[in-house]
């Protein structure tokens, strides 16, 4: 009996110190979370989300990071087109100079095509292209079809694009200029995710692919609830009027910069920008590198970048694109929560489709249910996620 008691005591004397150390570690971890303001520990890729900023039916959640790589070695499309470091033309229009100084067409030749342009990066920096960026000119206004990186000094590149001006096929200029505009999510989704020209045209024409659910009526049929719901700031009827008056070719830039659409979107964007600046003004040790976007109670979109420098560069045209989407959706009293945004930004687990340009970039897409995640990863001078996009497909 005495021997059994001594053995039990010896076991307990080993177990209790281990349990005590475990309790201390758990307590320290909980204290660290409380000290950081009660937010969850850093999530996907070390990012942290904070409370969203809401104006009308638009809520934007800042994505923060304390560490970020140097992205100063990359150029954006707007910068490169403005400086002349990049040239975008219709296929067949770009002439290269031979060693003898003679101008000749590119080897691929051919005539202009709706879904292909030619891009030349003549600058000294790799060029970032994001799906949905608008370029104006040529035979039709277009948007970039897919995220990618074009290295400095690369051969002329056949560039996949989508038309956002259905009613024109005549040259207005030999080359394209930067519209300094990002297509709003309903249009951008059809290019970046669906990769379908007819759907891009339809989303430009309709304004938004969002459709309100119709509740069943007392008689069992579709009720008039959807039609009786508050109208969006810019209705489909008003968009039809804009097309008839100022954008008969359905030019996306002309439609979105028109008085009716432009004024509504600019007002919402200005109001949101003031609130966003106040909410992110006093960050300590962290910077905003991206956003998660909700329309009403639906978390629908995210744009996250490698650095605050890149985010700040794209932010003005991204914000306006979210504002355009918001003014074309009906107002709502429901707003997405921080927990909703955190759920949205969790890493997707599913089949991955990849495309790569060895030593330059890797493009990765994961589709899970209605959610699509797209990641653009630079492979040089170091490996980093330059842009991370997640979409709730309409």
Could you name the key traits of this structure?
394 residues; alpha+beta; nine-stranded antiparallel β-sheet; six-stranded antiparallel β-sheet; 10 helices; 32% helix; 27% strand
Care to describe what's here?
This protein has one domain. The protein is 32% helix and 27% strand. It contains ten helices and 20 strands. It has helices at 2-35, 77-83, 185-192, 197-206, 225-228, 236-246, 252-256, 259-279, 308-327, 338-345, and strands at residues 48-49, 53-55, 58-65, 75-76, 86-90, 95-97, 103-105, 116-121, 127-129, 133-137, 142-144, 148-150, 157-163, 176-182, 287-295, 298-305, 352-357, 361-368, 371-378, 384-392. Strands 1, 2, 3, 15, 16, 17, 18, 19 and 20 form a nine-stranded antiparallel sheet that branches. A six-stranded antiparallel sheet has the order 5-8-13-11-10-14, sandwiched between helices. It has a three-stranded mixed sheet with strand order 4-9-12. A hairpin with a 5-residue loop joins β19 (371-378) and β20 (384-392). α3 packs antiparallel against α4 and α8 packs across α9 (308-327). The radius of gyration is 26 Å and the shape is globular.
Q: Please compute the radius of gyration using only Cα atoms.
A: 26 Å
Q: Quote the beta fraction.
A: 25-35%
Main beta-sheet annotation:
9 strands, antiparallel
Summarize model confidence as the mean pLDDT: 84
Count of DSSP E strands?
20
Order of helices and strands: HEEEEHEEEEEEEEEEHHHHHHEEHHEEEE
- Uncertain segments are 5-42, 97-109, 212-226
Structural class: alpha+beta
Domains, number = 1
Beginning-to-end CA distance, first to last residue: 73 Å
Tally of alpha and pi helices? 10
Q: What is the 3D form? A: globular
